[in-house]
Amino acid sequence: MFIELKNAVKTYGEDDALVYALNGADLSISQGEICVVLGPSGSGKSTMLNMLGGLDSMDSGELRIGGRLITSMSAKELTEYRREDIGFVFQFYNLIQDLTVAENIEVVSDISKNPLKTQEVMAALDIDKLKNRFPAELSGGQQQRVAIARAIIKNPKLLLCDELTGALDSKSSKEVLKYIERVNRTFSMTIIIITHNTAIKDMADRIVMIKDGKVESNERNSVKIRAEELKI
Amino acid sequence: MMNLNRRYRRNLRHSLSFYISATLLTSLGVLFLISMYSGFYAIDTGFAGIMKTENVEDAQFTTVLPIDEDGMRDLEEEFHVELEKIRYVDIKEPDFTVRVFAEAQKINTLAILEGKDISSDHEILLNRDFAAANGYSPGDSFSIDGKEYLVAGIAVRPDYLYAQKDSTDFYLDDADFGQVTMSPGAFSSLKNTQAYYAVVYREDNSVAFRKYLSDKYFPISYLPAESNNRIDLCRDIGKQYGIIVGWIIPVIFGMIAVIVAVVLGRKVKKEQKQIGTLVAFGYRKNEIVRHYAIYALIPGVIGSIIGILISLFLVKPLVLLIAADFETINFDIRLHVPALIMALLIPSALYLLASLIAVRKLLRKNAILLLAGNAEGKKKKSRLLVGCKISFRRKFLIRNLLANKSRTFVVIMGMCVGGFLCAFGFIMVDSCNYLIREGLDAAGRYEYQYVLNTIETKAVSGGEPMLTSLFEAKGKDDLFTLSGLVENPKNLALRTKSGEEIEYGKYYFTSNAAALYGVSAGDTFTFVNLLTAGEYTITVKDIIIDNTQCALYTSSAEAARLMGLPAGSYNVVLSDKELDIDKSTIAVERTKTDIKEQLDFGIELMMKMIYIFIVLGVVLCMISVYLTVNMLIEENRHNISMLKVLGYKTREINRLVLSVNHILVPISFAIYIFAALQLSGLMFKSFISAFNIYIEPDITVSSMGICLLILAGSYFAALAMLRKKAYRVDMVESLKDNRE
After folding, report:
1. Do B538 and B492 meet the contact criterion of CB atoms below 8 Å apart?
2. What is the dihedral of CA B2, B3, B5, B9, to 10 degrees?
3. Same domain for B228 and B243?
4. In this complex, is the C-beta atom of B364 within 8 Å of any C-beta atom belonging to chain A?
């Protein structure tokens, strides 16, 4: 398995206020899959994403990605890990407002060892005509496509998307998901999408359900449909 | 509101570094304002008060014919003046010299500082600094010329506040020279006494008075208080201090208040989501405004109070430090009320205003936009450098500076406020040093200057004669020296502004005097002989470049004519080597080194305050840079967090985000050096009428280097302190934050 999370525990607070964000969560995902993680608010989705992305540490448990033991990495190694292996797409895009589309992508390509070709990535996401625009001059859907381009330019092993359609209308959402599908296909990238929107699960190769800090189900999707056919 | 008010404590804790630096900056500004104004006020009123209550002389003079009691009474009635014969004698004791005065009745009376006034012939008064340096107190016994006297009290003379033994002394040694006052009866037992007359004018009739004196008593000397260092230096220190305080303090205090106000306003602007939430909850506008007003008042009120409290302890040492070269009097140390009111009101009012403007601006926006953190809407972006092939880092840097103009402005101000103060201090030092160098050049090539105590006419062997005397510009109190030169003087290096040769027998003002009297080449000028009060009008041929001396040059024959002396008269001899002149005829013998020391000493009086400025400038620089860089990090938290998520290393983040302001260091440096030079230039212009001296603002390359080092050092030190803060920014912030 490409991703192997075993018995992950993460708590916040102490004594009476102790909260289990993850309470013995297990997860395994194969390389090249699109995995949609579903679950109600407070179920531990974002905490799991933070662990996978090397943003946060767990109290106990083990995480291996591509055979590497992430849980034993130092802060410096985690930075390297995020720098080379992980791509992030945020719900609210998090683009640098003072940089144009091309320059926002450059922010990541500049620090990557083997970045993809900017032109190729922009073409894949149909944003090459927008390259000299600033984020404030783009629609939400366009901004999210730029965010995806920025995330994949480093050619990461794993693309993590946190509620990537949360701020978009249904038409833009569908369009962004179409591009996620294209990225998966073009660059054979493993993609994890965390969402509240259950309709998105239909485009996934794997569907994971989380509840109360535990993985309730982790199944392959046998009736996968194309993003443009989603009923969002 | 109760629950809402709990935010104050939490917000204080969360933004502790902001509140501490804003409060410190405010308290430093207040401290600077109050201590300087209060110090100036104490020195000025202290010396001026003694001069007024103890009726300091307007001038002193000596005459060939003595003026008897009746003659003095007649003069007093005729000219509505006060006259008193001041009797004194210098007595050398083994360890010191004392100048013993007979107690005066009307002019230059004594201010008793400790003990009591003399009541018998065996009691005396000592001046404070001499008594302190030699360990005398009231009740002690003091020996003069072998006779024992009782020290009745410690007192200060208004005409000896700057207690020079001789008018040419550069250094004052409190232990070596003292003033003793005794009853006229006791004084009459002393031998070899001397006397001069002191006069106080009640009307503006000194010219008529001197004319009368000249006709009837043949004056030998006439020294107005304005030319008497023992009196005038005290007035000068007040003036000097007052000018610097008046020019610099408002600028620095204002800049500090504006910096904190702008940073505070920007901080409030970041609260838009919270404000939106309060609006959504139904809070009234005035309730929200009131809530944020408290945030503004915290650094304003606390900073002002801390500044005021520290100044309570600091004013006295500051006054004693600045007035250390003068006689120690009982300074009335109290906080200057207008400064106190300014200190209490201005910071709080400005911070309040900045906060209220920011809140009211946000409250005019749609609550939904506020809740989304998008109150500013989509601003049209400048297309600067779009498509330009330079790295995104440089573009980020340039756009970040230009897109956040008020932030860039306040960071520049933050760097300028302390740097300006340091630069100002260095400019004062360098300009004065330049003046000394230039003054020595202007003084010419001679090494020895002999000022004679008589007017001579016989030929000088080996030296160059010169005839000099003090004159007064008509209608002005400012005096100048008229110097009569030999043709083609070898010992003076006179250069005219126009570059033309000196035409012998014509009149040439120095640039200093020209600036003081506002005259140019070709103007006519009327002046009055101090001794005879004779009035003369001349035409100024050209201006001599010399900013150190207030002088009018002409031929010795012309000078002799104006002074009513035979041609060939002289009272000064200049020489490049030591001359064998009868010592009894020499009043003052000076070398170039003496002149340099004299000029150096004049500057030394100013230096204490300059050092205070430089030290304060460094501290201000550190705090203001810390405050503004802190703001930069706060405003870039989102970017820092996101860059961390993207895998940027701390060093790279620092380079990208925190290095944005590096470019502002040289820009700020250039701005404050320019501003300090301009302000110094304006201030120095006001020195002309105050001190009869024109100083050209100057700063050396090494001083500029030190200024740059101070700024860069403060900046990078503040950055180093704040790096931890950038390091602590949580990566998860960018995942949760929905601001765009």
Report:
1. no
2. 130
3. no
4. no
Cβ proximity of B307 and B26 under 8 Å: yes
Cβ contact, residue pair A79, B647, below 8 Å: yes
Domain membership of residue B688 (yes or no) is yes
Q: Is the ipTM of this complex over 0.95?
A: no
Beta-ladder partners of A26: none
Q: What is the pTM of this model?
A: 0.72
Number of domains observed in the structure of chain B: 4
Task: Characterize the bridge pairing of strands A34-38 and A206-211.
Answer: parallel
Q: B93 in helix, strand or coil?
A: coil
- Domain check: are B417 and B359 in the same one? no
Cβ distance of B740 and A91 shorter than 8 Å? no
* Residues of the domain holding B670: 388-440+594-731
Q: Which pLDDT score is estimated for B739?
A: 42
Percent of chain B exceeding pLDDT 70 equals 92
Distance from CA of B684 to the nearest CA of A (A): 45
CA distance B216 to B75: 11
Best B404, B646, B727 residue to mutate vs chain A (most A CBs within 10 Å) = B646
Q: Are residues B105 and B211 in the same domain?
A: yes
Question: In this structure, are B169 and B295 located in the same domain?
Answer: no
What pLDDT, on a 0 to 100 scale, did the predictor assign at position B36?
85
Distance of alpha carbon B302 from alpha carbon B30, whole angstroms: 11
CB B715 within 8 A of CB B412: no
Considering the domain architecture, whether residues B475 and B562 belong to the same structural domain is answered as yes
Residues A19-64: tens digit of each pLDDT: 899 999 999 999 999 999 999 988 999 889 989 988 888 999 999 9
State the distance between the two ends of chain B, measured CA to CA, in whole angstroms: 30
Q: Are B225 and B307 contained in the same domain?
A: no
B63 and B41, same structural domain? Answer: no
B202, B233, B264 - which closes a domain: B233
The string of pLDDT tens digits covering residues B619-642 is 888 888 888 888 888 888 888 888
User: Which residue in A50, A94, A132 is closest to B387 by CB distance?
Assistant: A132
For the cut 90, the answer to whether the pLDDT of residue B692 exceeds it is no
Pairing outcome for strands B524-529 and B177-182: unpaired
Q: The domain that contains B483 carries what CATH number?
A: 2.40.40
Residues 6+ apart with CB under 8 A from B17: B626, B630, B722, B725
pLDDT of the residue at B641:
85
Residue B654 lies in a domain: yes
- Bridge partners, residue B125, by sequence: B153, B181
Q: What is the pLDDT of residue B398?
A: 82
Q: Are both B502 and B533 inside the same structural domain?
A: yes
Structure tokens given for B77: 């009635």
Written as one string, the DSSP assignment of B206-254 is HHHHHHHHHHHT-EEEEEEGGG-HHHHHHHHHHHHHHHHHHHHHHHHHH
Q: B399, A83: Cβ pair inside 8 Å? A: no
- In A, minimum Cα distance to B642 occurs at A94
Residue ending a domain, among B233, B249, B284, is B233
- The CATH fold of domain A31-56+83-229: Rossmann fold (3.40.50)
